Amino acid sequence: MKIALAQINVIIGDFENNNRKILNYISRAKDMGAAMVIFPELATTGYPPRDFLEFSDFIEKAEQSIEKIKEASKDIAVVIGSPTRNPVVEGKDLYNSVVFLYQGKEIYRQHKTLLPTYDIFDEARYFEEATRWQVVRFKGYKIALSICEDLWNLGNENPLYTINPMEKLMPQQPDFIINVSASPFDYTHAAERIRILKENVKAYQIPLFYVNHVGAQTDIIFDGGSLVIAPDQTVHTEMPYFKEGLQIIDLEDVNGSTTNREQPKDKIPLIHDALVLGIKDYFGKIGFKTAITGLSGGLDSAVTTVLAVEALGKDNVRVLLMPSQFSSEHSVKDAVDLAKNLGIRYDIVPIKDIFKSYLQQLNPLFEGRDFDVTEENIQARIRGNLLMALSNKFGNILLNTTNKSEMAVGYGTLYGDLAGGLSVIGDVYKTEVYELARYINRHKEIIPFHTIQKPPSAELRPGQKDSDSLPPYDILDTVLKQYIENRQGPKEIIAQGFDPSLVERILKMVNRNEFKRHQTAPVLRVSPKAFGMGRRMPIVAKYLE
Amino acid sequence: MKIALAQINVIIGDFENNNRKILNYISRAKDMGAAMVIFPELATTGYPPRDFLEFSDFIEKAEQSIEKIKEASKDIAVVIGSPTRNPVVEGKDLYNSVVFLYQGKEIYRQHKTLLPTYDIFDEARYFEEATRWQVVRFKGYKIALSICEDLWNLGNENPLYTINPMEKLMPQQPDFIINVSASPFDYTHAAERIRILKENVKAYQIPLFYVNHVGAQTDIIFDGGSLVIAPDQTVHTEMPYFKEGLQIIDLEDVNGSTTNREQPKDKIPLIHDALVLGIKDYFGKIGFKTAITGLSGGLDSAVTTVLAVEALGKDNVRVLLMPSQFSSEHSVKDAVDLAKNLGIRYDIVPIKDIFKSYLQQLNPLFEGRDFDVTEENIQARIRGNLLMALSNKFGNILLNTTNKSEMAVGYGTLYGDLAGGLSVIGDVYKTEVYELARYINRHKEIIPFHTIQKPPSAELRPGQKDSDSLPPYDILDTVLKQYIENRQGPKEIIAQGFDPSLVERILKMVNRNEFKRHQTAPVLRVSPKAFGMGRRMPIVAKYLE
């Protein structure tokens, strides 16, 4: 029996186009001789639909999609994720379901049991959990249907749930497992996903067909990498990362498979490809073509601009250089060199005169007071205003160039360099931005060598360097990672050998700057713990402050 | 037996000061002859602690607080909410618990059963639900302990949960119910709370002691209003709204009580008081004293400024007037009149020259193009920059003055008039802002009559009025409320008699401007559905667009 894996990229709430794509994949799968085609979790709506799920109208549209897909299930079974209504008045109003459609009928509907409610996930907000589990019979096979997290309570040191839906299905002796997923990318996740799925195959000794979403939904990036795992835990198939696709697998081939077909999972290339897709889908899905960045001659804006060019093409990216009286000689040259290397349009608008006009107007109020962070921020906000002016006038989206280290400690100006519609490298620590730059330059020098080499600086006062106000980035990033990704407290981090006062200073900076992160653009998520929906912190608080 | 209700205002994560306050209330309750003192839900940590709960160090600090409180429970029972660890490896790592302490010992620990996971609530993210329910015996009484939502599955048309913890406790024949709560304010909530609690008393026929938090935690405002309800459903006691307090109730009095002591619950005065407390606590809890607003002569900035003065005092609020060449004659006069009425400092910084310097620098790039929204936005962002400059130089916090109608449809400039550390009236529709203004002026004209009377305008181009780009506010607000608060889809709203194309236009504006709301300040929540954590929408989506 031939089974098709449909790894698709949909737009949240775009029922018409999503359905057109689904119907097209069904017809292609049928043409290729598949008896069954599998789509991801909540494929009709896109994932995560968030509070749109609370609108009855939205659910009705998903139901109408399923009706149309049902009609297309003539001579091919369609297994697809969609929200369904809970007919019982008690409990949440919805289920997160996978429906099994065949010959124009709904054969079975399995609800999701384990509802992830951590990090970026909010499923307990919307869905009631399954209380019934049943295999589906199809062409002589018995199939265990599961949805994403349903397989993730196995092989964990600290299981999040007290039940395991596969344990309910195994007594019915299924021949294989289907899992429809919405499993977002982070640079550790593809390996972890394979580990967990292998644990399931090891426990149940039957093949597993796993179909994931691909594509970015604002900040959340789905990498695809749909899988077929053979009973001996060999990865029979791993579909490409970051690309849509349809793949046909012969079930009979899977059982005898011994060749491992896993793809490489190197961190920096994965992050690179994820960010490019993240930019591409953000623009494509809201119907914008062109981007603008502020190019300072520094590393962060250089890397962001290169990624934008890869995502959108050189004719769709323009940059603005906005030197101040404090900009170093090399800054403009480095920025121009990069623009020339990329073949993109650049313009230069110095901010000195505008800055002077602010100081003049503010003089009656500021007289007798020293130059301080205020004047630094005024300059950063002039740049923000100029970039947004070009964005408004020419219909470009401003890409934010702040890195994760800066976001963490609040080293940036709200409405200034923190402005922008999308934060490209806000989940990439400064030390990783260097790695990305070297990866970008792997074949030839795209980012000027001098940009990578020089000490980082905001250039907002004479001779300023990041190291004046921040610890060295290698130490800073290590401490931040312990606190943010690993949720270690001060005691635990200090026990690793870091200077206690430094650790306390860094943690305090992180917590005090929550108000800034609250007002910044969505951050493309590439790590297991990104700023945004996945990390929910109080703004007004006194913990570690 | 005398029972003390301790309606306290704590700071999230400020264990030292929270504990000092709790110990002080215990000692006062003891002095007043109470046999028992009841504190709110998660009183040790503050509510909501959000992802701080994922830090073992944070939980340890809460445990240390409980240890100290236990020592203080000599000769007085202390009933208090705090997070506790789940000793079982399966399931979430924490419980949301109420502990019963007496004579230096923990007598019992009841976990929360119903974990709200909707709107602003994320409890399923952190907590495992209770599976054991037991009354506590104290001085001959049997007490049913419950936590907030535990009582809220009764008397609802659409119950969210399939179990009801009181049904587990009633067979043990408790003499009264204690409920420790973190039940946030909205203008409908105090009445709804009493309705639900009366439903419980009606069902179980025993008195109910209910203790709530008071105080604002960033955007979430707790109103207090702790309650004692007599077996005949009379409101024996309702503690004040928006004020800390300790109240002693004699249990014997409650049983015979027939006098209803409910407070008035008029919408506009409640919203007014909530916003004043919201501002006050935001500043007090982060240790700032002074605020700045941009005063345009319009209604929104006038109301915001009056509320700030009420919260912080007239010496702690200053305003900046930033007329443009498009400002009407009356704008400056109206703004100055208000500043004089309030007795606050005002400064005037015209933006014309700065605007000119931007246009001059941008001229080479903009040549030949028409004045459009770009030039409007540049002016709004100059104002944002000036306000933030004063904020930075003098250590004031900028209060945002955008109302809910504008926030909803995106009528505002990111980094311009949408700037600020706290949005004061972002959950108040324009039509309600008028009501607030009239309430503020109830005794004398504080807000100039002309400010209330004139047609709203952003004054960013010649002769501009809000009504040029927006429907009349009474229609707009009604449609918005149906969509936002009541989660009605286009069909349902149109069926109420609104023009279909208008409804579609409004809903599209709301959805398209999610990216702006993502980058704005926390909004003081006064309605059942505010922008912020309680309303989670995708940014990139095509639903109703």
Keywords:
homodimer, 545 residues, alpha/beta, Nitrilase/N-carbamoyl-D-aminoacid amidohydrolase, Rossmann fold, 2 domains, six-stranded mixed sheet, 18 helices, 19 strands, 17% strand, elongated
Layout of SSEs?
The structure is a homodimer of 545-residue chains.
Chain A: E1 2-7, H1 15-31, E2 36-38, H2 56-71, E3 77-85, E4 94-102, E5 105-111, E6 136-138, E7 141-147, H3 165-169, E8 176-180, H4 189-204, E9 208-211, E10 214-217, E11 220-223, E12 227-229, E13 235-238, E14 245-250, H5 251-255, H6 267-286, E15 291-294, H7 299-312, E16 317-321, H8 329-342, E17 345-348, H9 352-366, H10 373-394, E18 397-400, H11 404-409, E19 422-423, H12 430-440, H13 449-453, H14 466-469, H15 473-484, H16 490-494, H17 500-512, H18 514-518
Parallel strand pairs in A: 1-2, 2-3, 7-8, 8-9, 15-16, 15-18, 16-17, 18-19
Antiparallel strand pairs in A: 1-14, 3-4, 4-5, 6-7, 9-12, 10-11, 12-13
Helix pairs in contact in A: 1-2, 6-7, 6-12, 7-12, 9-10, 15-17
